[in-house]
Amino acid sequence: MTPSPCVTIAEAQMESRLVKQSKRLKIVTTVALDIKNQRPSLTLSLLVQFFLLALLGITANQGFYLLGLYYASPTFASAMQNSVPAITFILALTLRLEKVNMARRNGLAKVIGTIASVGGATIITLYKGPPLLQLQSHQTLGDHNSEEMQQNWRWGCIYLLGHCFSWAGWMVFQAPVVKKYPAKLSLTAFTCFFGLIQFLIIAAFVETDLRNWKIVSLQELFLILYAGIVSSAIVIFLQTWCIQKGGPVFVAAFQPLQTVLVALMAAIILGDQLYSGGVIGAILIVLGLYLVLWGKTSEKNITEPPSSLTKPLLLNEEEEIKVDDAASKDIP
């Protein structure tokens, strides 16, 4: 009995789909095996380096930031973060991971930008200045309360400086570790694991009251979910996508915009006060950051071609066909 044309076409389509899925499964399996083969064997030296990465990038970084945010304000915490690229440049220059040619404009721009950024962070730390807006929120009366606020402000700035140096040190120290252990997902997992252990040890000594560990309101639950879903998962995905599209320098160029947005939202929503010293320091940090980024971009364009903003994030249909055709040659 001869099968009908419709049945033949359906069987052919089903067979084509099965072959295509088997090809893709083989490609995914091959990629997974390649990633597994990139993971070197663990040694005591690597575990110690993972522990130090967690100490810098998670424990000290986030711990100092939360303390600084508690004593200062979101506006100046965001402004201080703009000095991280310049601090990273100083650490890399000290460790001979970065070279500066003062005879070129890009080298001079990096040095001037670094000085301006560090100077802006210093102004925010040491000089508060008069308030720009007479807001009613967070106001206290009395000389004792005023002196206490000033003391808390200085401590907040010191903690935020520790946060910036920890963040910069983590980025500088991460570069040689990634070369030794190129499995980035496993490296991230080990770093988060050691960071969790370190925070649990600290919390066991600091938070001895078990009542502080309970979630007592929907607001606390919302903050935890927001920090995990939005601040971590979505932000990391978007930054990874943007870095693949435009490069890390392109993404870092938008960092100063965070300061402006945080200042406006903190003043409108939280009623935080804006001070002249913080505004002057933030302007210097933004100008210094852009000088450093311009110098890095100009230096990169001399040695390497600029990154393409039109490079697709995922394979398009034509590239998938090429991959499938190449993989089909390996299937008997």
Automatic annotation (TrEMBL):
GO terms for molecular function: transmembrane transporter activity. Signal peptide: none annotated. GO terms for cellular component: membrane. The keyword Transmembrane helix applies. The chain crosses the membrane at residues 46-70, 76-95, 107-127, 153-173, 185-206, 221-242, 249-269, 275-293. Its main location: membrane. It is a multi-pass membrane protein. Residues 155-293 form the EamA domain. Keywords: Membrane, Transmembrane, Transmembrane helix. It is found in: Membrane. PANTHER family: WAT1-RELATED PROTEIN. Belongs to the drug/metabolite transporter (DMT) superfamily. Plant drug/metabolite exporter (P-DME) (TC 2.A.7.4) family. This is WAT1-related protein.
